Structure formats: structure tokens, C-alpha cells
Amino acid sequence: MPEKAPSLQLGPQNLITDVTGLKVGQAEDDTLLSGVTVITADAPFTAACQVMGGAPGTRETDLLSPEMLVNQIDALVLSGGSAFGLSAASGVCDIMARQKRGYAIAGQHVPIVPAAILFDLANGGDKNWTENPYYQLGIDAYNDCGTSFAIGSFGAGKGAMAGMSKGGIGSASITVELPDGISFIIGALAAVNSFGSPFVPGSDKFWAAPFEVGDEFGGRGMIPPPDPLALPITKTGFSQTDSRANTTIAVIATDLALTKAEAQRLAITAHDGFARALVPSHCLMDGDIVFSVATGAKDCPVTPAIQILLGHVGAVTMARAIARGAYHAS
Predict the structure, then answer these.
(1) Which domains does the chain have, with CATH numbers?
(2) Mean pLDDT to the nearest integer, 145-149
(3) What is the pTM of this model?
């Protein structure tokens, strides 16, 4: 007799905050046409990352490698603003330090706040500021943190573009129940600002359509058979030689207790969701990065079989989150 398959169902909100312990906050500026998204929790959590784009902009990602000293972090920051947006993490770091949160050393608390940015400087917003606005946007996003949040043109997705379409913040979740009674949750969040498109050329159908649950991104139906030689519709086309205006930055999360090495494997496999939802993906001018997060709220052994299942379902959930970000953007 074949083994019984795991049962999958949507999380209560279909958001990354369905993962026990996680909170998300967002802030944006309508004049600037940019914003910040913060992911945190009541307690430090395990994290790792994997960069697969050719033009990343990051802060404190080296310490997420499995061989590095720090095992847990206090928050993650996703921001618009290109390199200027990294200041958002400084705002989050400062406010968390005032709350006595962070890595305790020499009588001090040093919050560990890795960050990644996307390029939205050419989206028509007013960028003629004299004082970097992202520091305060980071603080505002942190103060907004809770268990529910809006998807679409909010936070880091405020000024995003996906190919030739509007991009935004997307999120999705899934609950996995195994035949032996073990269950866990996987959630994804993505700020979609990709060079490639989430849509099949010549249609309004999503590349991620085969993975849609219900009509969570419009129920537009399955994609038509693609022309394998057709060039997809991209943000800048293929005639420009200086295309530095992209990046999808994302977080994949679970309530399982993972080591940093296991979390990094999850980040690697979650990039498969990029390839399923965006064509092309991981381009030279993209800064594509996935952070992985494990809160450890679910106490169960992480066997190799569960790791494989976690990677597969994580990639599918990431593809859904990307499509939802583009679908809800305005």
C-alpha cells in the first residue's frame, strides 16, 4: 500500500504571519513612492539567506552563514530606495536597542538586523530629499508590526515594478499535516520588483497559475503552452545595456526549529519559487535574495524527509506570494 500523502491547506490569513511568532510592519511615503517592510518576532529567531541575483544590496548577510558566530537575529528589513534604503535597518536597530533587544555583550544590546533593498529610484517619486527618509520609515514600519498586514502597493512594494506591470508586496502561507499527526506552517513574503514578468507574454495569466490555491490571485486559469523561443516582456526590454532597476527580495518562514544550515537549504529551494513565478528570474541586473526564518515554535524532529517537503512546499508558497504581490498591486 502506498503511504498516505501529507495534507495541505491554507493558513488562516494566507500570510507569512500565520507562522507562529512572526510579526510584519510596513510604512510608505506616497510622495517618495517608496517604503519599508519589517519582519520581527517577540523572541530572536534563526535565519539564513541565499543570494542568486547579480546585483544585490544587503546589510549583515555574511553573519547568516552557518559557520558564523551569531545563531539568531532580531529583525529583517526589506526596503526600497536602493543603497539609501539600507538606512531603514539602522532605524530599526536603534529602536530595538532602546528596548534592550539584541545580542548581549559588554553590558550592551546589539540588535542583529539584516536587510536587503530593491531599486525604485526611477519610478517617478520625489527623490529630491536632503535627509535620508528611510531611517524614519524603518522606525515607522517597526512600530507598525503586528500579525496582519496589507499586500499590494505597501511597504517595500510601494514603488515596485514587475516586468512592465506594477509590482508590490505579496504573501502566502500553507499548513502541512503529516499522516503521523505532525504539522507545521510555511509562509512567504516577497517584495516583487523584478526584471522579468509575472505574466505570460500576450496574456493576463500568471506564470504561477499551476500553483494557485482557489482564486488567491484572480483565478485567471492555467497558462497557455508557452513559445520556448519567445522573449518575455521585461521591465527594461533587451535593447538597453544599463539596466540596474530591479530586484525581488523575499522571506520564507516556518515554525519548525531549524539549524542555520537547514535554514539556508530552505532559502536555496525557495528560489525555485522565483523561477516558477517570474520569467526570466535571477538576472544579472536583479538583486534577488531570499531570507529564511525559523521561529522554532513547533517542537518536532526535522528529518531529511521533512526537509525535502519543506523545500518543495516553500518554493510553491513563494511562487504564490510573488503572484499575489503583482495581482494586488495598484
Answers:
(1) 7-328 (3.60.70.12)
(2) 97
(3) 0.93
